[in-house]
Design goal:
Blueprint lengths: L4 H21 L6 H15 L1 H6 L1 H5 L3 H26 L7 H7 L3 H13 L5 H19 L9 H30 L2 H22 L11 H12 L3 H13 L2 H7 L2 H14 L5 H31 L2
């Protein structure tokens, strides 16, 4: 049973994330950068004991480990969450299900980035699967309608969702790298703390604290709920699972996020995607699974060739 705990951890984190969108949509009238800052400051305080306990690990960190932490803090924490929260604020122009399904582009962005940065070869099979994923993503977003038929704000929301997918996709690779040398509680605490510091600097620079004065007690409760469920706590649970599960397997287990989000959106709000959108979602998910497996095989062959 113990060997299955990391798998259950990733699935449970994915289920929590499927509820995250519903909570964030209730904060649509609050500045996205303010939401990100508050939840990370609270999360950093909650996980401060792990930061203090892991002082030896932190002092022993090398430049590559710090680079990984900085990347996942800026892109995975600050920018990814900002774009995702901002996309969800367009609740009158885009369905939650669409925003969440578009997050499955993360592996595509991660592999493409590795090809650019690490000069890895892109196979023909990868290109075919990538095109399939793009077609599926288009159907999820626009159905059979041409792209220029969409409202401008719908287009903006889609672009924000894709930017979030890029940020999180690139952060998954470097998060896995950080977990090779650090324990998952320390990675979680560092990620939250570094993001909180950077977010505070940005908020001070743009003088974005004004919305705090108009935030209601209900909105504060929602932010606290996010921190202790779908935010910092879910991140802690996810890193526990990611440390012990292969990245390719993790991608499959994370499918519980979009699948459960679509189901919850239907059950709670009665929002049902069109048949074409469901078809597009299926094409997107299947192509991403095959693409991830293709990359895993490619990496395995490359490792065998190395002396």
């Amino acid at each position: 049973m113990k060997k299955y705990l990391p798998i259950f951890a990733i699935i449970f984190a994915a289920l929590l994330w499927s509820m995250d969108g519903f909570l964030r949509q209730e904060l649509y009238n609050v500045s996205s950068i303010l939401i990100v800052t508050i939840e990370h400051v609270i999360g950093a305080i909650v996980f401060l004991p792990f930061l203090l306990k892991g002082k030896k690990e932190i002092f022993a960190m090398g430049q590559r480990a710090w680079s990984s932490i900085f990347w996942i803090s800026v892109f995975g924490g600050l920018l990814g969450l900002f774009f995702y929260t901002k996309a969800l604020s367009y609740i009158n122009y885009i369905d939650l299900s669409v925003v969440v399904l578009l997050q499955k582009f993360q592996p595509l962005f991660a592999i493409s980035l590795a090809a650019v940065v690490l000069k890895e070869r892109i196979t023909n099979r990868f290109l075919i699967l990538a095109i399939m994923a793009l077609v599926g993503g288009y159907f999820v977003t626009f159905g059979l309608n041409p792209i220029d038929s969409g409202d401008d704000k719908t287009i903006i929301a889609v672009l924000l969702a894709l930017l979030a997918a890029f940020c999180w996709g690139s952060s998954t690779v470097l998060g896995k790298h950080a977990l090779k040398t650090l324990s998952f509680p320390v990675v979680t605490a560092l990620r939250l703390s570094v993001t909180a510091i950077i977010a505070l600097i940005v908020l001070v620079a743009i003088r974005g604290f004004s919305d705090i004065n108009v935030m209601t007690a209900s909105q504060w409760k929602i932010i606290l709920l996010i921190v202790f469920t779908t935010g910092s706590v879910a991140l802690f649970i996810y890193y526990y699972g990611l440390k012990q599960v292969k990245a390719s397997h993790s991608t499959i287990y994370e499918l519980f996020w979009p699948l459960s989000a679509v189901a919850i959106d239907w059950i709670l709000r009665g929002r049902i995607l069109s048949p074409v959108q469901y078809f597009g979602g299926g094409v997107l998910i299947i192509s991403i699974i095959l693409l991830t497996r293709e990359q895993q095989k490619h990496n395995g062959k490359a490792d065998k060739k190395r002396p």
